[in-house]
Structures are given as C-alpha cells and as structure tokens.
Amino acid sequence: MSRGRPRGAAGRGALSAGRPLLQRWALGCLLALALALQAAGCASYTTRLRELRPAASQGDWAGALAQVEKKGRPGELLYHLERGALLRYAGSYAESNEELDRAAQRLDELYTISLSQRGLTFLLSDESEDYRGEVHEGNYLHYLRVLNYLELGDRRAAAVEARRLAQRLAFVADTQAGRPAARGDPFLHYLSGAVLEDEGEWNHALVSYRLALEGWSDPGSACGGEAPAWLAGDLARAAVRAGVSLEEIGLGDLAASRPVAPREGKAGTLLLFFESGWAPMKTSEHLRLPIFAHDPEWRGEDGARAGGAVLAQRVRHRRERGEWAAEPAKVAYFLDVALPLLGPARPGAAECRASLLPLDGEAALGGAFETRTAAAPAIEARTAAAPMSDLACRVRDAFAADEAGVIVKTIARALLKYWTARKAEKQGGPLAGILANIAGVATEKADTRAWLMLPSRILGARLELPPGRYRLRLEARDGEGRVVESGTREIQVDADARTLIAWRSFAL
Asked: Do 433 and 424 form a contact (C-beta atoms < 8 A)?
C-alpha cells in the first residue's frame, strides 16, 4: 500500500494554498462594494431630484410633487420650499402658504447651528449639516406668500406678510455686512411698498419705495438693475398721502426731474410680474487633485486645514484656466474630491406678451408684457422692458461668496480621510485600508442643495386701464417671436386700485 501524505496535512496545505485566492475574492468584493457606495454617495440633491424641473416645465404638478415627496426629506427646509412653490404654481394657494410657513419656521430653528454639528460635518460631507438656505431663498419664500394671499383675496394677510418681508430685508442688511446680500433686493422692497400702499399704510409704503429706489440706484450692486419708470409716480403718491414732500425726504431731484401726480380718478392699475426660466443649478465636479512629492504630509486636523488652503489655490487655477498648474515635481498620490459647481442660468423666454379682452363690452387691448401697453383698440405701444429682479445674479453672488471656504473645507476633509485610510492599512492590513476608503467614499459628495424651483429673472409691466372685468392672455415667446407657452385667466380691475398678477413661464 502506498503511503500518502497525512490527511490533516493535506487539508492544511489545501487551505493554505487557497488563502490568497480567498483574500483576492474578499478584496474584489470590497472593491465592488466601494464602487457601489461611491455611486450612492454621489447621489447629490440635484441628482436625486433631476426630474423635478422637467415635470414642472410640462405642468405635471402631481409628478413634480411626487419627486419631492419620494426623493426629498420631510422636515428639511428644501422639502418645504420645493413643495410650497409647486403647490402655488398648481393653484393650491392655501396649501402652498402652509408649506412656506413651515419653511419659514425651519429657517428660524436653523438660525443657530450647534458647534457639535459643525465639528461633526468637518469629518463628513457638507450634506450631513442641516441646510440653512441662502439669503435670497429666505427672502423669496415671503414673496410667494404675499402672492398667494393676493390670489386668495386676503389683502390684509398679504399686507402682514409684506411687513414680515420688509422686516426680514432689514434684518439681512444688519447681519450680512460685507456680503452681497447685505445690499438688499429692490424688487422685494418695491413689492412690500405696493402691497402696504394698497392697504393704506402710506408711511411704511413710502419707506419701502425709497429703499427700492436706493437699491436700484446703487452702482455697487451687480444685481440691482434700474428703477422702473413708474416708481417715481408711486413714490410721489405715497409721499402725498403720508403728508410729506419728496424734498423733505431727500428726493427733491427726483421730484424736479420727473414731476408726477398721484393716481386719481376712474383708472385702475394692472401690475404684472413675469417669472421666467430657471436659476443656475449646482452640479457635482469630481477632481483628482495631484499631491506632489515635495508637498508636506498635512497630517492631523490642523495640518489638513493648512493643506486645504494651499491646495485650494491649485483648484482655483484649474477652474480659471482649465488645467492644473505645471509642476516639475513627481506626483506622490492623487486626492479625490467632490466639489459643487454652479451651472449657467437658463433665462427662459425671450419675451412675454399680454393681451386684454374687456368682458364688459369695450374694445380689445393688445400689447407686449415686456413693454407698456396703451389702452387703444388693436394698437401695441412698445417701450423698454422693466427688469425687476435678477435672481440668477443673486444665486451666482451667493455661490461666489462661499466658494473659497467650501473648497478649503472639502480638501481638508479629503486629506483627513486619506491619512486615516493610510493609518488603518498600516495597522490592520489591506482590508482595513479598503474599509477605511469605503467609509470615506460613502460619506463624501458635493453639496448641491439649493431651491430648484426659483426662476432666473422677474420682469414687470404696468398698465393703466378702465375699471372692469378682463380676460388676460399671457404668451411666452422665443427669440423668433414664436409662442412657446401661454396662459389665460379672468381678472378684475377696480378704479383707483391695483391688481397684481404674477405668471410663471417654464419655457426654455
């Protein structure tokens, strides 16, 4: 009988021979898991809600709301902001205001962020921190609430909301010193003034109108634009009814150069706001940042912060010139980072026209929304458009103000994760290093959160009309004059009163 090797020894040998295969299999599984977690980790806010804007553009409010409810996170600020805007455009004004009120309450809760949360989010992604919203987002939720109350016919509640808006704008001016948002928003000041004037609050209206004029006249405000032609008349009328003159409040030059009379008599005013396009949207940019052999190791939290400041300059160079700065040194390793990137604005329709058909037997009126329409049968009187609010500009300003800090923090966090993984690999072997890398991948993604339903810009037009009922037709047109979107509604214009209508065009 031949003598073979002992069975126990054979078993041990087989197990020993199979161990590298088992390790390779385990490594492969962990790498696959890392890739899966990376894909999940990269599901940023704009990626999760990528169908929101297309659904809204098609008027599919149920589908758009389902996107928010399925992919959003109830209780978070953006959940309420997106739902509030969608419900408004769907015509559910009361429900919209309920959501926007929840958003306002959440903003108040988030005003103070705990230091413990800030320390935690330095090690995790920025999306681990509660989103506190941009200044313009907090402002424009009040804009929508004012419009909702007007649609509901509750002018008193609209005036209360207009005062809240004015108070918020004053608060922003006091607390945002040195930032672009501190310059205020003249369009929102104007809206507050118009609504307060209509409720007989002349003094408050005058203050808001004056702040609007100052904002539109501020040469240092890139988003200010020019005051609409009719603001001088609104200022003069509010001053007369408040019992003061323009000279008394330092606006004598305005009174001398543009003499106007208060609105009196049988005419009514139709004030139209045209919300167009989409504000710029954040996307995620993945970069492989080269770390050179001569670079410090930047270990520990303090070292990571210092390294973040140095390496942020390389990222800015790449963003400005499209390539990394040339370095003669050898690349030691690449640092993977995910950074937010702001996309272009989508201003939407080139023009929006309005036509008015009196329902009380008078002649039809036609005109261009981007212009001031004359009350004459079948005649269009075209004048310059009145840009009221450049929201795309405000989004860009807010992004630019925070961009440098976001880049430094993101790179510092990546350095910390890199050295944590290296330490884990040194102490626990390759598997431990891979697990540490998996944890880093799963907790890192660019913060692309922003209010997606905001328009790119708001234009305005004002028409003086005989009192009565009208059928108002609004048309969004492209650069060649073709109608790409339209809407019709009936309105009532009263004598010596203002009717305010806002229309949202989603046409691209």
From this structure: yes
Residue 200: which region, alpha, beta or left (left: phi > 0; alpha: psi -120 to 50)?
left
Q: How far apart are CA 197 and CA 333, in angstroms?
A: 64
pLDDT attached to residue 78: 96
Buried b (16+ CB within 10 A) or exposed e, 216-233: beeeebebbbebbebbbb
Q: Give the model's pLDDT for residue 371.
A: 33
Cα–Cα distance for residue pair 345/411, rounded to 1 Å: 27
What value does the CA radius of gyration of the chain take, rounded to a whole number of Å? 29
Residues 324, 289: Cα–Cα separation, whole Å: 9
- For 353, phi then psi, to 5°, come to -110, 150
Query: Count of alpha carbons within 13 Å of 156, Cβ hemisphere only?
Result: 0
Q: Which two tokens stand for residue 267?
A: 């005419």
The sign one gets for the Cα dihedral 461, 463, 467, 470 is negative
**Residue 160: phi, psi to the nearest 5?**
-60, -45
Q: What is the model's pLDDT at position 128?
A: 73
Instruction: Measure the CA angle with vertex 277, ends 271 and 282; round to 5°.
Output: 135
Other residues' Cβ atoms within 10 Å of the Cβ of residue 171: 12
Question: Hunting for tokens 């009532």 — which residue is that?
Answer: 492
The HSE-up count of residue 363 (CA atoms within 13 Å, CB side) is 8
Angle, CA 506 vertex, CA 146 and CA 150 arms, to 5°: 15
Q: Summarize pLDDT for 434-447 with one digit per residue, the tens.
A: 665 666 666 678 99
Give me the phi and psi of 261, to 5 degrees please: -115, 150
Q: Report which DSSP code applies to 453.
A: T
Give residue 378's region: left, alpha or beta (phi > 0; psi -120 to 50).
left
| Cβ-contact 258, 232 below 8 angstroms | yes
Kindly report, residue by residue over 457-505, the tens digit of the pLDDT.
998 988 888 999 999 988 888 888 899 899 999 999 999 899 999 999 9
Cα(148)–Cα(205) distance, integer angstroms: 20
Residue 230 CA from chain centroid, whole number: 29
Task: Reply yes or no on whether the pLDDT at 363 is more than 80.
Answer: no
Per-residue confidence (pLDDT) for residue 379, from 0 to 100: 27
Closest CA to 78 of 55, 98, 107: 107
Amino acid letter, 448:
T
CA distance 36 to 144: 40
Structural domains present in the chain: 73-262 (1.25.40.10), 283-342+394-442 (no CATH)
- DSSP state, 178? T
Is residue 403 within 8 Å of 410, Cβ to Cβ? no
Q: Which residues pair with residue 109 across a beta bridge?
A: none
CA distance 272 to 285: 39
Query: Under a CB-based contact definition with an 8 Å cutoff, are residues 246 and 258 in contact?
Result: no
Token output for 213 = 């004029």
Strand residues in 176-230 grouped as ranges (E): none
